[in-house]
Each structure stands twice: as C-alpha cells, then as structure tokens.
Queue: 2 jobs
Job 1
Amino acid sequence: MKFGLRLRGGLLATLIMFGAPVFAPVGAVFVSSSALAQTVQSISVEGNRRVEVETIRSYFKAGPGGHLDQGAIDDGLKALIETGLFQDVKINRGAGGQIVVSVVENPVIGRIAFEGNKKIKDEQLTAEVQSKARGTFSRAMVQSDTLRIAEIYRRSGRYDVRVTPEIIEQPNNRVDLIFTVEEGAKTGVKSIEFVGNNAFSSYRLRDIIKTHESNLLSFLASNDIYDPDRVEADRDLIRRFYLKNGFADVQVVAALTEYDPEKKGFLVTFKIEEGQQYRVGTVDFRTSIANFDPSTMRSFSRVNVGSLYNVESVEKSVEDMQIEASRRGFAFAVVRPGGDRNFDAHTVSVVFNIDEGPRTYIERINIRGNTRTRDYVIRREFDLSEGDAYNRALVDRAERRLKNLDYFKSVKITTEPGSSSDRVVLIVDLEEKSTGDFSVSGGYSTTDGALAEVSVSERNLLGRGLFAKASVTYGQYARGYSLSFVEPYLLDYRIALGLDFYQRTQLSNSYISYGTKTLGFSPRLGFSLREDLALQLRYSVYQQEITLPSYLANCNNVQTLPDGTPNPAFNPSPAFANLNGIDLSSTSGLGCYSDGEASLPVRKELANGKTLTSALGYSLTYNTLDNNKNPTDGLLIDFKQDFAGVGGDVTYLKTAADAKYYQSLVSDLVGLVHLQGGVLTKVGSDLRMLDHFQMGPNLVRGFAPNGIGPRDLNPYGTQDALGGTKYWGASLELQMPFWFLPKEVGLKGAVYADAGGLYDYQGPTTWSVTNELTTPRNSNCTPSTISPGASPGTCTGLIYDDSKVIRSSVGVGLIWASPFGPLRFDYAVPLTKGKYDRTQEFRFGGGTTF
C-alpha cells in the first residue's frame, strides 16, 4: 500500500488519510448500557501477541464495588487506541456478562530506509523522523514523519518536494518503512526590496540582512535559498541596525514574501517605518537604593551627550552598571533605562534608574540539547551558578558568550518558576552544529605567486571546547606546515592558552635574492579585558637560516685567501678588469661583488648559519568594528612589542602600532583612515638585517615588495633591500559600491592615497671574514664613486642608500567579496619615491576555500 503527499511553493497539496478515525475504529462494538448494568466478573483479552493481558486490562478503571459502567468502558477503549499500539480494538459482550476485548496489534517496524535523497543524508533524516526501527508502526506517526521530511527540504530551499511513504509487509507482523523522496530543484530568492527606507539605501540594507538574492554564483553558497526563519531574523537585524543609528521609533512592519511561478522563486519585501533620528540630549542616573551613589555609575556609561542614540550602547551600559552594582554588594540591583523624546529637538534624554529588584535566587541551571558538548563547557560561560542571586545582565552576557562560541545553531536562555516564589530555574536550550572543518585553499598574488593550503580544524575538540588545527602550505615561493592548539579556559580561568608549532620556507624570487628557513614554537596567553579590549602575552623561540645559490656567495674574485695564498678561482676577464680599473698583477682585488654576489649582510647571515631567536612579547588590541570581515564603522588599534634576548643569539626591542578607523559617509560610502608605525631598537649586540622592517605595498601601494627603504647600491651585486629600523605610514581610502550591479555580486571600488617612509638601517656594513670588506664605508663613498670605472680601493664598506624621502602614491582598487574568497586588485601610481626604490603599479591577491 502506498500513500503520499506533494508540496509546492510551501503549501500542502495533498493529504492522504491513514485508516479510520481514531474515535471510531472499524469493527468496534459498543455494549449497550442495559447489558452492562450487570456486575462484570472479569475482562478477557483476545488477539494480543506482545502486549500483556494485564497491561490491556489496566486501561479499564472499575468504579466502586469493582463494577464497570459504560463510561469506564468508553474511557478504556479511547485509552487503548491512544497508545498507538493497536490497529483495531473491539469490545464485545461474552457469556455471563463477561467483557471481551479483541485487539489487532500494530506491526513492528523492521527497518526504515530513504530513497531518492541526494542533498540530505540518511543520518539526518533518521534523526528527524519519529518512526524508529524495532518500534511500533503507527500510521499517524508516518504521516507526521512525511510532513517533517518535506519540512526539512523546505528549510533547505526545495519547495517542489514530493515524499511518498511505502509500507512493505513482512512475516511475523513486521513491516519495512520506505520513504521515497523526489527532491525537486532549489527555490531561491529572486528579489529583495525595501519600502519606506529613506535614511539608508536598499544597497546598504542588503549588507545587514543574511538573505541574499540568487545570482550566477549562488551554487557556491546557500544564503539565497528562501527560509522563512531567516527572513524573520532579518527583520530583527534591520530593526537593530536602525536602533543603533538613532532611529528610536523604527518599526519593520512586515516582511512580505510571494512566490513567483514565472521566476520560479520568491520575492521578499521589507516594509519599514523609520521615524526620525535622535541624538542623546542628556544622561542622568537615579536610584532608590539607600547608601548608593548613582553618579558613580557615570564612568560605566557608554552613552555620550550629543552622540546618536544607540540602543546597543544603552544595553551595554545597563549590563556594565548592573554587574558593577553586584560587585559592590547590591546583588539584586536592577538597572532600567528610560528615555524622554523631544520631538522638536530630535533628542532623547536617557535616564538610568537603579532600583532594588526582587530577591530571587537561581535554583538550577538545566541544559538541554547538548548531545556532544560537555555541560561544563557551557556552564563556564556563566558568571553565576546555582544559589547565586538572579541577575538578568549576567544571564544575557552568558547567552551572548554561548552564541559567540560558534558551537550551536541556536541558543536561548529562559526562566521557569522554581520550588518557591524566590527561586527560578534557568533553562538553556541549545541546538548543536558541526564544528569541524576540512578545507583546501588556493590563491595567487603578485608577491607570493601561486599558493595552496590543506587544513583540518576542530573548534570543539572532543566536546571539551578545545581548538586544534593542522595545515600544510605549498606554493611557488612559500612552503611549510603548522600545528595549533588552544585551550580557552586555562585552569578554569578565563585565560586562553595557545600553542603554535610551525615550519616555513621562503624561496628566493624576483624581490629577494635569498631564501629563509624558519622552525619555531610559540606559546601564548590571551586575556579579554573587556568586550572591546584584549591582551595577549607570548613567547616565541625560532631557528632561522638563510639559503643562497652557490653562485651568489662564492667570492671567486678575491685574489688572496685569508691564509695569504692566492685564490685559484680568481680569474676576471681582461675586459672586466680594464672596465673596473683592476690591476691583474696586484693582490688587492675587487672582492666578492665582482661576479654578482649577494649583498654583504645577506652573505654574513649565510656564514653565521642557523640563528636562534628567543623573544617575549605582548599585543594590546582595541576593537569596536561593526563587522570584522566587512567593516563600515568603528576603530581597530593593535599595539605590540617584542623583546628578543631571553637567551638565543639575537637581542632587540621591536615596537609596532597599527590603527584603522572606518566611518560611514553619505550614499553608502565608507571612509578609512589607516595609520601605522614601528621602531626597532638595538639592545646589546648588533642588529641583523633579518630583524629589520621590510616594507613595500604593505606601507605604500604602488611599490614592489621590499621595494622601499635602504638598499645595497653595489652595481655588481644583487642590490638587496636592507630594511630599516623605523617606519611610518598613513593612508586615506574611500570605498564605494557599484550601484548599477546587484548587491550579491559583492563588488565595490576604492580610491586612495598613501604616504610613508622606511629608513635608518643599522645592520652590518663591514665584514672581515672574507678578507674583502675590512673597513667602514668611506665618507666620500657615494653611488657615483662605485660606478664602472671607479678605483677599487676607494670604497671598501657597504654602500647603501638610506634617504628619508617620503614615498607617496595614489590609486584605485577593486574589492570583490567573491564566493572564492576575498579578492583585491590595486593599481597605484607613485608620486614621490627614492632614487633606488622599486615600483610595482599593479597588485593582485586573493584566495579561496572549497
């Protein structure tokens, strides 16, 4: 027997009824009240195989004296049917007033199978249906399961789905249950419109919501699939966005959805009533609690007079004040914000009322839905526990922390009454999601060439909240591997312990003549000082060495070896000797540079072999960005220092600061101000060239990697960039969307101007080991004095350019938030540059995960 249903456009097209109504089973015989007026001595049961006789009899409740009346018989009949154990139940009158209950038991399900399902796995469907193998077969349950399967496909955007259950009878009253699925095609969102939005364009609002329109690349994502829950969540996102920007009266009246058969997709329209925009007029603090000074809460307020009214700032202020009051011993203090609108002045007077709340305690914290994540991983996100005073601010903070873990699809914390009026039970409802990732990444840039990476990571290892990642990188100029592990709660404190082990190999390319091999290990501790302020302490120990092709470090043109004997490899051509003024009969020679050797500091690092660096450092990060991936507003400041010299072969103090400020301007334009700077300070021993800052397009676009700053000027060498101990940079950028393109394409443009400088090389300038450069650079040595034809004895030290000229450029960029990962194309033209800088006007970089 087959029975099925068909869903189109989210509407139930056909419902097949299974069997007869439960309130009137076929074949049931109702005994007349006159026949049952006699005393019933016993109840006999027929047809049962698995269900015990006494179990069936227990559903008939006798009245006083052991008699059964008509009501008791009816109730027993209904109760037996509602168990779902029987296909049919009949009640007949036997001889001598006996009641005979004849039952036909439901079959037992032997197996459950799914056919035709390609997009959703059997395991997911098995977990969702209520019918289970070796369980009792119920037609009503099968009908419910059929609808549930269709609903699962609807949530994945397949509204044209057909689910047909099939029952295959087997011996011994068993059946096999087969669900045949015709999945149909995806039903996407063809258009998203906004009505009533005047302050913000539709283009800007599409950035806020999670639902996107379908496009040519939609097959790489799923946010274009119509999901009513997602659309409803988008309503709240739009409302929250307006509330953050001063629109205290905003209402997202409706999210209208309509299926268009011609477009074979949904049309979504959000209706918005913006109201007017408010600024903060005054901020006041009041309390009814004795011995509590409300003015002391002013430092915990994030609401400032004159700023746009921001509901998130109000909420965070309430949370901080309530927690602070609790720390001061007012455990039941409740902070309630209020606001009086001045419609003429367009201002809101904010008042924080601090009052004594009800004396309520937490009786229990019940956690539901965590099948994999351990209870303690969830409980440690709470700053309160059983027996503590109930504090709604701390509960809200815990809910936000649980969501930020990214272990769960949904998190909801509610309260239920406890065992007494002053007790509450916290109910934590969770829905877990996959936390493991396997990715194959690829990319290409003008700096690093082609690059591929394979990585495996787990954010919730063994359900204990641990993070682990292993990755292998192989590219044209960069190769290596890394292992990372993070324990977010070290010794049950809110301190994150991270361990990183890595090996990197950088090959020589068109920008540097040498390669480097680095093997390192770095433990770190992370502290969240506030939601917008984080501190990291770290220790780094790594071994580094330089690699060079032999022809860049052979020094064949040294006539005399260190022991005083002639160099048998010295054999410059007469033409070369005449051009450079070399007297072939003398022993002075021109040194290693004559046949194209690498720069002196490079060869010195090569001769030093492997170098061990041991450094302590810290980073302080302040982050108020509205979106870390695509920011439009907020400030990001990163300040870090590293001190090398805790053992090892290197000593220095390196300081760097980086600040980015984003500000939304008119018509969806976003302004960016980027400032950066750094200082490398010599401590004790000499600085290595490898410890210096190396700059290029990361400081001023339009220049090649390692294209800025001090450079070896010897015309016969590789003229390597030497780096500097000081740098600064400033950039102004204006990002704008392409309004003529659909938002879902993810393209926007940028225009910018950069300026910066790198200078003050303090690395090695002389080296006596090769018997070639034994004295400091002569003060008369200039780039002109080492041109072809110069006397070889004039300049015996490293000749380099270290001018403090300001480098600047202007350019345009194309930014693409593509399904293949973030891509950026830049074309910049240098306006000012050093005489020996190297430029690169076009630059491209990006990658993907697939």
Note: The chain is about 15% helix and 40% strand.
Job 2
Amino acid sequence: MHPTVDRKTAVVVGHGMVGHRFVEALRSRDSDGRWRVVILGEERLPAYDRVGLSSYVGAWDASSLALPGNEYVGDGLVELRLGERAESIDRTARTVITSAGHTVAYDALVLATGSYPFVPPVPGHDHPACFVYRTIDDLDGIRAAAEAAGPGASGVVVGGGLLGLEAANALRLLGLTPHVVEFNARLMPAQVDAGGGAILERLVTDLGLQVHTGVGTASIETGDQGVRVTLSDGSVIEAGLVVFSAGVRPRDQIARDADLEVGPRGGIVTDLGMQTSDPNIWAIGECAAVQGVCYGLVAPGYSTAEIVADRLLGGAGEFPGADMSTKLKLLGVDVASFGDAHGSTDGALSVVLHDAAKGTYAKLVVSDDAKILLGGILVGDATAYSALRPLVGRPLPAEPAALISPAGAELGADALPDDAQICSCNNVTKGAICGAIADGACDIPGIKTCTTAGTSCGGCVPMLKKLLEQSGVPLSKALCEHFEQSRAELFQIVQVTGIRTFSGLITKYGKGAGCDICKPTVASILASTSSEHILDGEQAGLQDTNDHFLANLQKNGTYSVVPRMPGGEVTAEQLITIGEVAKEFGLYVKVTGGQRIDLFGARVEQLPVIWRRLVDAGMESGHAYGKSLRTVKSCVGSAWCRYGQQDSVGMAVLLEKRYRGLRSPHKLKLAVSGCARECAEARGKDVGVIATENGWNLYVGGNGGLTPRHAVLLAGDLDDETLIKYIDRYLMFYIRTADRLQRTASWQAALEGGLAQLRQVICEDSLGLADDLEAAMAQHVAGYRDEWAAVLDDEAKLSRFVSFVNAPEEADPTISFDETGERKVPVLLGLPEVPVATQGK
C-alpha cells in the first residue's frame, strides 16, 4: 500500500468509456499513489464498450462488452460505486451529494457525464412503445417490445445517422422490418454527401430496410400493432415500437445547477487543459465543450481523459484538436468519412468515382492545386481508408483519381511520414509503430501490446499489417523448420497433388525427417482429406500419444475411455455396460461437462478389451483424444421442456453423427439449445445453435479455456437444411484455412474482413466455394467408420496395445492408485502425491 501522506481525492462522475480511460491513465502514471479515486457510476454495470453496443443484440451477454479492468480488482486506491448518481455539487465545500444521500469530498472533480439521446418533441414521444438507443438497459427494453410485437412486425427508427442505422440493424436482427425516418434528404448527413448517401440508401434498402428521407415524424399514437407513426408527408406506419436516434446532447445539467459555464448549445466549457470555470473541476468526453466545441467520438474523448490525468500529476498537456474521421460497417456496408469530407475549405476540389453497378462511392477532397489531401468519403468499399486518412493535410503521393480507382496506384505505408497518425483512437503515429517493430514487435498482437494501436475500433489493423510487411521483419508462415509452407498451404498441396503419405510430402515439398510439429499436423491433414484410418500404414507413426493409442493419456501412464453419447443420449443398456466395465476394470467414473461419461485408469493393454465390450453394446469412440469433434451438448428441448421452441436433442444427435470423426486443426465443440434460455451454453462453443420460434440461430467462433470468447451470430431463423449447409461450409472452410492448433475463435478473429467477410463466404458464397465445401463434408460423412471398431477387426493394429513390446503380456508395474479417500486417484511413483482436496484446482 502507498503511504497516505498528502494523498488527494479525485471524484469521477460517470463511468463510461472515457471515465474509465481517465481512471486507467491516472492510476498507471501515479506511481507514488498521490491520488485516490472515487467513481460515481449511474448505471448498474461498470464501464462497457458503448461503441460496440450493437453487438449485444443476439448475444445478450453484457460481459462481452465489459472494458478490461473496469472493476479495478486489487486496486485499493479506486472505489467504484455503481448505481449511485451524482445529484449536486457544492463548489464551496468541494463535495458531491449522491442519489444515495452520501456526501463525497473532492480535491479534483472530473465530470465524465457523457451525453443523452435527443428525443424530438413529437406528440406521443412518451408512448410506452418508444425507446432510445443508448445503454444496455435500453436494448433490453427494445428486445422485450420486439418479442411482444412478433416476427415480421415493423419497427420505426427516428433518425438516419450513424446510431440510427445501428438501431435499425438491431431491429432487423430481432426479426422486425425496420423503417428509418430521416428529416435530412439523405442518410448519415454528417458523414456522407448526396452521392454517398444515394449509394448507402440503395445498399441498405437491398438489405431489407425501408428508408424515408426528407420527412419528419408528425405524431405517435397507439395503433393496431402497438403504435401508429404518422410522417410529415401524411404517410402512416403501423409498428410494434419506435426507437429515437436523432442525435445526442451533452449531459451538463449538474454543471448548470452548480453555476459552471456552459456553451450556448450546451456542454461544459473548458480550456485546452480541460479545466472548467472552476479550477478544481474538470470535464472530459462528450459533456465537455473544449473552448466551446463538443466532440461526440470516443477518440477525442480519450484524449481529454489523458490530458486531465496528466494535469492532476503536474503536467501541462493540452487538447491537440480532434480527428473526426469515422470508419464503420453498418449492416455489412462499409462507410468511411475523414477530414474535410464535404469540401468546405475555400477552393477545395472534389474527385469522385461513383460506381452504381458495384455499389461503391469514393470521393477525395483536395486543395485547389490538387496536391494536398483535405478529406474524403468512401461508401461500399473502405479498404483505402487506413492509408488515406493519415495523409489529410499532406501532399498526395499520386494523382487523386488513381488513389481511388480500382486500376490505379496502391498507396503503401511507405508514403506516410513518421508523424502520421495511424491509430486515431489511441493517437499512435507511424513512427511509434515502426519503433515498436524495430524493438522486436514482429506481429500484430505484439504491436498492439507495445503501442495500443488497433486495440479499440480495429480500423487501423490493415495499415499495421502493411507496416510490418514493409519493415523488413521476416513474417514466416512456415509450419516448422521442415516445411516452409503454412498448414493451410500444405492442406492445398495435399488436396491438389493427391499425395497420401508424409514421406511423399516432405520429399517433394519439405526437407529433413520431420518433427513433432509437422508430423501430427500432416497426419491431421491426411485424415481431413480422406476416410483412411489414422493407424493405417505410415500414418500410424505420425500420431501423437493420444492418437497412437486412441485414448487420452493421464498423469500416471494410464488412459481414459470416452464412449460417444450423441447429444448426451444414452440407453439404459449402454449405461449398464459402462457400469459393468468400470467395475470389472476398477475404473474411476466421471460425468464430463460435455454430457458423456469418462472412465479413467485403464492400462494400455486393457483398452481393446474394454472397447470390445462397449462396441458390442452399440457405442462408438467419443474421439476425446483427437483434434476433432468432441461433443454436441444439448438441453432436452421441445420434446420435454415447456419452454423449448425446437427439438434440440434431435438436432444435436443429427449434428454429432454428421461430424463425428471430423479431423481439424484443433478440437471442436458444438451445442444446441432449445430456446433463448441457453441451457446448453451454445455460445461458448465453436459452433452454437439456438432455437427460435422460426427455426435456428447459428453462432460461430465461441471458446472456453484460457481466453474465453462468446460465439457471434452468423445467421438467424434458419431451417434445418440451411443450418446444416452453413455448418458444413463453416467447418470445412476452417479446416482448410486455419493454422496448426488454432481454435475457431482465434482463426475467426484473424480473418481479413472479420465476421462480415466470413458471412459473405459462408452465407453468400462470395468465393464460389460452397459446392466444394459441402461436397468435402459429404465425402467425410459417407466415409466415416468408428476408429475403435476398425482396430478391433485388425490384428496388426491390436498388436500395438501393449505396455512393453518385448513382453506383451506384462502390465506396467509402475502404475498404482490411492483408493483410501473418497475418490480413486493415481499415485505418481517418485513424485510427491497431490492431496485429493487440491486436485484440479
């Protein structure tokens, strides 16, 4: 603990993204512990990613939006009070009165109150079916209203700006038909011009949105479906709900009540050091009017937070100005705006490429001599954004038209000066990134760790890749020292050449004799491209220990046996057989998290005998030992549960029998839940299926383990046939392109274009691979045969199941167990025993 001498208290009002950033900045720099921090957070949840709020729809998991370290666990100098609002400020006494009736004294007061949604004074705006789109609680209310309205009902969004289109997408994901009402003549008027707006409107209309531009909302009243919305042109929309997303206003009421200076259009007036008219009070983020100007983006908000942290520690930082550039993907449509996008600079010229056939619009705004880039707009394709935005205010390296033409010049990272800002969210320059690369950051995760670039919105990641490529740092894709190719490249070689042996592959495409990296990897590739048994011929020698004996090796040299139970189903007769086997061979029995039974403690020579009993009882290998499908977990679904909407058990059994034995870069886990209550925990799996009233929602890329990730929605309300078709494509695409030992979660996160690109490949067949991927999966399904059944029918394979090759009848004498406690546990000879009470912790 730091000494308490001269410690001061900073009270932070508001715990949003900017408030959290301030606390992080102050605590990371205050090495002497000069400041204690008290945070008053109005919401029930600690700071979360409000920019990514739309990703909450479908997942409905607030924890996935939580900002890292938002609860300050273990930091004794930070006190977080959630659900406690600041009601008033006594500037003379330097105290804050809270909604809980507490009085909190401060030496420095930091107002991070953010903004509130503007609701136009439309008659009926306070109808119970009207909502705003700002917080997690708002989205929970919208969800409940959407479910009450039912699938296919209309939902009206008042406001066609950035947040309005996000709200419309949320309604679309909830099964509603969204109507967007925008008073301006085009969508996103602050970001795009008339040409870009026209392309944007066409693209979102093709996705199912009904767009009403150039009209206002005249009235809202109770209607047949919930609300009746009358527009200024006299048209009427019968809808289930209305979402207001008509802009935001700075939350400055607490400052007004305390007689702090506010701007004529709102906002708490500050100087460039973020100090208000009271020298002990500071304002940051959207509530701050820096020299009279409010900024509504998170990047300038972060800058204000850093400045106040610096000032409280004796620094003299000043607000450097704001980069109001934006790049986002709305309903799968790229939109980017940067610099003087609307050409308001005197003498500015515009160069436009408007390709209506492709649905793209690109505009560069340049100086009157066409040499300096002033700004630009990109709609439909924003790949050039990361290279163009840092050049604003700088000489262009090529003709403007060439920079936005598909056949024109490609703008490389070498065209940017060292002081060009690459990451606007965290204010990271090209020079800082190149310095990190020179110091040993040789991949994207390394650059993120060293510089924080790419850790917020991720829009600068393509430029980070370019800087790596042009830095001279070798970015090897080699699988190991014996193969220069990556796993994905070796997969393609095997597929195209038809090579079916490791020796043949390494002779022609590699070098040396191979290692424990490339041998199992090639073995997996061979198994993924054929139905040959993994212990046939040369392949047997490539396998790791688990695959070599088709069982999981345990810590004392014994093995575990896991029979498959598709979807968790098992017959009474099979349970009896399992019990008899466990009793006869003295095995420890454990029900796994994947809804099946694991039998521990089998010696290697016992494995064939045990499996003969299980196979004769109609059971198959559960592949618990392989990099392949493990389980498909399920709840009981509509067959038994009163909440079930679909037959989750039937679907789980179908999927497990379809994908059993499917070899892949890493293990695969699936789950099927019969309703949104999610008893099968499907969103923690590589592939998760959740029943809806109309079919199935398909989630992909989930993961437990060391770095848990929730699966994300790939497609919704699918029928059985489409669901299986999409899963076929997804799994086979993963198997073909992932790296060695790469789970679907990390593979998916590393894909160029992210989820949107994956959705295009899987659902829209953008690469033309659908038929090929489905055919490959059909080949696997048709060729499947239980591995243990095949071993039992082959004397040559059975001969390997011995403890000692030169004494096949002899059991391993080093294997022993401690059965004195409540559980049977292995004894490790020559090593200290692990107390039963601490095992597994």
Note: Confidence is low (pLDDT under 50) at residues 830-841.
